[in-house]
Design brief:
Blueprint (H helix, E strand, L loop, with lengths): L7 H9 L9 E4 L6 H6 L7 E4 L6 H11 L4 E2 L7 E2 L3 H6 L7 E5 L2 E5 L2 H7 L12 E2 L1 H10 L13 E4 H6 L11 H11 L2 E4 L5 E5 L4 H8 L5 H11 L5 H24 L4 H9 L1 H15 L13 H6 L1
Parallel strand pairs: 1-2, 5-9, 6-10
Antiparallel strand pairs: 3-8, 4-10, 5-8, 7-9
Helix pairs in contact: 6-8, 6-11, 10-11, 10-13, 11-12
Length: 313
């Protein structure tokens, strides 16, 4: 939650009205300056928790703090301006009756004041060739890698449920990826597990001009996202050979494109060019450090990475 005073009541009511699912609500407020906290506090049940950060952590680290504080075996983020549809939790939790499933997702309904964005990103899962209700996770990753990891075909956190332990062992959310940070985590989870797909809308995504998506695109802070995801897919110890090959094939064209964009666009043109020219060394060095930070190179061996290790993510 961050400055969701106008929407947090709708969000929380949609969760509280979920039937036939046992769950806790953990709200981590990222130091909102509006009335979000006061509104949320009146709606929580005994046992639910509301934690307010003393200073802003930012979207990615706030997600990681939620992962640390959660006590359940499964996590579904619900952003403060989104909401769940009836039966969402009950439907998704049944996907995990299969112990191989690490992630379950469903289409989301999009509410947006940007018709062009809604037409382009309103439906995501149809990009997959053979999406079934039960899927071999690494095969879905290979499909995304084949197309260059350009888009998130799974969806935003509100339409995804996953195993908390798996997410922690896989390193949580990276702090140096912005627009595609959720895709980055979904890929790491699916490489290590099966993925379930429920073919009906279970949540609502509220997309407005003030969302983090618009901010990232406007500021171009996400310019290295794809390169960093491709680099990790090449290095990830759990990645399949086809995934590594496709990620490697896309790496050089992506790097060249970033170099040309850096030359054309200012005002920080010189810094961008220097950064991207060093990328073949710096990005792979970072990826190797991330790999070393994972527990034994596999999420099923040893404990979760420390907070200091995850800060690299």
């Amino acid at each position: 939650m961050y400055n969701n005073g106008s929407t947090i009541a709708r969000c929380l009511r949609s969760i509280l009205e979920q039937d036939a699912a046992e769950f806790e609500i953990v709200i981590v407020d990222d130091n909102s300056s509006d009335g979000s906290v006061a509104i949320a506090a009146t709606l929580l049940r005994p046992g639910d928790r509301l934690i307010r950060n003393g200073s802003r952590l930012g979207l990615n680290e706030n997600h990681n703090k939620c992962l640390e504080l959660a006590r359940g075996s499964y996590v579904q983020f619900v952003h403060g301006d989104d909401w769940l549809l009836p039966g969402a939790l009950q439907t998704l939790i049944h996907c995990f009756d299969d112990p191989t499933v690490g992630l379950a997702f469903a289409p989301r309904r999009v509410v947006s004041d940007n018709l062009r964005w809604q037409q382009q990103f309103g439906v995501l899962h149809t990009h997959f060739w053979k999406l079934r209700e039960h899927n071999h996770g690494p095969s879905l990753v290979t499909e995304i890698a084949l197309r260059g990891t350009k888009q998130n075909w799974i969806g935003e956190p509100t339409c995804v449920m996953f195993r908390r332990r798996l997410a922690l062992d896989a390193g949580g959310f990276r702090n140096d990826i912005y627009q595609l940070v959720d895709l980055d985590l979904w890929l790491r989870l699916m490489i290590r597990s099966s993925a379930s797909f429920v073919p009906r809308e279970l949540s609502v995504r509220n997309h407005t001009a003030t969302t983090a998506t618009i901010s990232n695109v406007t500021s171009r802070r996400d310019w290295l996202d794809r390169l960093r995801i491709l680099t990790w897919l090449i290095i990830d110890p759990a990645a399949t050979t086809p995934t590594r090959i496709f990620a490697g094939a896309w790496w050089v064209p992506t790097w060249v494109s970033l170099t040309l964009r850096g030359v054309r666009h200012g005002p920080d043109r010189r810094l961008r060019v220097k950064t991207v020219m060093l990328a073949p060394f710096s990005e792979f060095a970072t990826a190797w450090r991330l790999r070393d930070g994972l527990a034994g190179g596999s999420p099923h061996h040893g404990g979760a990475p420390t907070r200091a290790e995850r800060n690299h993510f």
